[in-house]
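Uroporphyrinogen-III synthase (Sphingomonas lenta), 219 aa
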Amino acid sequence: MKVVVLRPEPGASRTAERARVRGFDVLLRPLFETRPLAWEPPDPARYDALLLTSAAALRHAGPGLDALRRFPVVAVGPETARTARDAGLEVILTGDAGAATAVARARTHGLTRLLHLAGRERMPDLPGIEPVTVYTSEALPVEPGWTARLGGRTALLHSPRAAARLAELVDRDGTPRAAIRLAAISPAALAAAGGGWASGRAANRPDDEALLALVPRAD
């Protein structure tokens, strides 16, 4: 019941608290820090809804978001939906299986012109979706040898980028991948970590509840 939380703050602390409440031994070490970028809202007439794939987009959107508040929101998962509602936006659709599925469901509801408030470092843009970059996620330094602490733990992977970064650090330090389990927020995140781990499973929906359910209850 040992996990390591790698996602950026403030989400890292929320995930860590959820894990501790469930009795997990938590090691908290964000691998990235999100920061706002300057941006200008595009012409609202071109869109009929906002696509949100990360709560970080809302935290960092700043005053530019005001020009887009009239649009309904398509959220990739429950956490992003909660953040959107807290920001005073109307969420009309919440996905449970990644961005592509959320977009497909939006189109069945007649929402075909989606504006994606996005991070600079992201997966390839979906066809027909127009992104506007509002934040960046920058890698934090990790001291050599740190990954030796991960033996016997399950790494919680909230993004493909975090998965790839973990693999890079483990290989840099010479830490055996076979000593670490993976629990990923999506199949894409799990695939980004590559092979050779003790085990690897992807959640059936993109939220912490599903992610933590993948963690073995005992070593």
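The chain has two domains: 2-31+142-212, 34-138. The first helix runs from residue 11 to 21. ok done for today
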